[in-house]
């Protein structure tokens, strides 16, 4: 049996050991590795995860450290879904519509032709059931998905020739990937995909007749305004929302305060990118119009827009028939758009149209 | 001289005491008291500071606790500036333009007639020099000021009679406080201010001919749609941004991680309120139009809008002459608006106009 004095000393030592252990526990550093789809130093898009990681590290007093590998490092820009799912990376920064080949219903969480604008879509995500539907799609793959930053309305693209009628779309060779390419193909265009580094030369040498990229925020540095005279307003990506994704096990390992720090940092970084994009587009558009006054900004004629819309709606009807989950998401979006667009029409749209005079 | 064994024991005890002190220090709870301008349970506006406080408390694991007193408690809805400045409260949630009687340059950090939309104005705050100008105005008063949530475009108001010409503004008795009231007064209207609780009766009994409140998000519960047939689209508050303010000494007392938690929580809560307002306006407008199909939504005629704009610009020219700081802010806003509106025109505006057909 231990003597009382020994017991006292032992208890004091044990208490002391516990006290020493406590701060070490409190200061445990959690490290997350993130893969982004973008190349190193990609502006605006690449700024969003870095803004997020900086906020998270500072708010957590260094307890949450997120390192970001660009595609130059991991070499798999379109492998982010698989790498995060497998736990090779804890997090990803990408865009949901890139995964439609693997999981068709992921298409609907980025932006849709003739769909919602950025504030309308954020309202759908956060108040109209969008987050719940995204969780329904991603939870099967052991992933959490969150809005990751909005580009705002993307431009319709750079064209070598003016589009005056539906006839001009026939045989048009255009770099336009994804669902919007399917819509254009229905009207006789030939959508192609070409690596970013070859786009300028392809457009200059007329290997392609047109291309879409993002908008002035990112188009300026690509130099397309130097070689294509027509810049069309947008219809196909009215509010492109990038994506933060997290492996569910990596998320579950975080204590509750760090989960909240991560959630809020992602949410803020997403909104911040929307505002950053808005600023960069405004600033760069001014540069383009000042330095290249011959660039003509055009909108597609009414009959072209109407045909694009019809083709779009037909494709969506097919997709809804193929997949009950797609049907559920598309109906949620269509219903919400109807309600929210009425408000946009009598608020921002009425305001912008009235003061233009 | 202390024996070696005594010294060892003393050192061990001292180390142990330090170790025990450390977690206590790390877990120090910082309590901030906030006064809001709004009454208890005021929707949307009042949700913003509560969303902020909940995020801050959760992210800090309980180390940052913010309690909020509504105007029902502190009885001084327009005393928030003075109370936070004096340190009676650490923080406030209000709107910058309420302080124009004390500090004229505070007028420009909420919204301006014919001014920027919400994303344009956030871009000005965060990328166009707005935050720096706001700091310049508020730092003299020992205060920090941050965006505190946006209502989106506010409606022009509820009218008993249709406005078909400038003549109809002459003698019009309208509840419209602040700078917009000054603009209307130049055109012969009689702006008045009436407490919120008396507005419904005043409009019903024709004590006033018209009133503006916010938009469908908050107008629905006021019931104005039951007693006034005309609902006009907005011109005078295109992007009303509320305000978080903090006493500088209270801010300086916080450790760096809690300052960042507070900054990010305020930033997110502000954006979140913009999206929340958007949703509530859309939802409530649908209810108004469904239940009261006789409500007529109108925009002011072109000549009325042009006259409002001229009166507005004349008043701003006067204000710029009186105060060099006002001049600096107004020039910054006008220059930024010119650049950013061009982008809005070819992005969201072109998109919204094109797909309406």
From TrEMBL, chains A, B:
GO terms for molecular function: metal ion binding. Keywords: Metal-binding, Signal. It holds the Pfam family DctP. GO terms for biological process: transmembrane transport. Na(+) binds at residue 213. Transmembrane segments: none annotated. One of its GO terms (cellular component) is tripartite ATP-independent periplasmic transporter complex. InterPro entries: DctP_fam, SBP_TakP-like, TRAP_DctP_sf. Substrate binds at residues 154, 175, 212, 237. The keyword Metal-binding applies. Residues 1-26 form the signal peptide. PANTHER family: EXTRACYTOPLASMIC SOLUTE RECEPTOR PROTEIN, PTHR33376. This is ABC transporter substrate-binding protein.
